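Notebook entry, structure prediction.
Reason for the run: the old model in the group folder had no record of what sequence produced it. Starting over properly, with the input documented here first.
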Amino acid sequence: MQTTIAQMIALTSWGNALLQGRIAQSSDFYPGNSTFQFCAEVAFYALDPATGSWPSQPLARDRLAWLQQQADAGVEKLSLSYWPSGHTAEHTTSDRMAVGFVGGGGRWLLLAHFADGVDVWEARWEVGERQRADRKIWQVRYGQIARRVSAPASEVLALPKLRALLANQLTALTTFASEQKELGFAKTFARALDDLNTAAARLESSDLTPPGALNLSAQQLLAATETAWVFGGMGSWNDVGFAGAEYDNYCQLSDELFVLLTQALVLVANHNADFPRKAQKAWWQFWKSAAATPA
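New structure, fully documented this time:
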């Protein structure tokens, strides 16, 4: 999947685990998480609600400092939300087709839940220095685009229902790709179907969520989603061409798969979001002490 999406999943899942005290600070999240490896900067800003412009100084210059701010402000949990654009292939570029472009494919929003509402954060990715030897070319800014608003309604299927629908969709796509002689993609869809039932989940991104954050069923769903995420630019499933009835079938099957996979990623990111926060205070006292200690 696109790193822009993966990073928001990591922020949500790791952020909840840290806020709830389920884990202590881990280098697998900061600074070493793979979703940040090509980012020169990841900072958090409060956008001007009148102009939508960026202030000169961020609220937080890294994700740990931002999490500390959220904890101090009384955040109860983080959650990830996905909002489709509403575009369809008949009118303009669909989300499935647009997701290969930075900022395309619907809106992914990070929600910070408080007792009196939610703060809404959205990321903007921009290319910085292209020739950096370490390939950290991305400048990422998370903007607080709404503060203490009502939590937006977002319907996500229950895990068993989502798994069943995804299995049916992958079966149909495996058959379709095989009939169209797209054997490489047929193999990919078949492998994703197998991922749903493999005893030890074959995760491509081992640090997307903290250890123990997902039960086996959720791990299998994530593994299948990683494998089945065939949406991108040249050479991807989006780049395959058909005509006539085959094209209509291809669009329907592919768009339905995209919807199921976005739901799966939201479900995975928010898994255990409501875990009791028994050790939160102790962890943040530790973090503040460590942050105040000279290097």
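Summary: The longest strand covers residues 138-149.
The old model has been moved to the deprecated folder.
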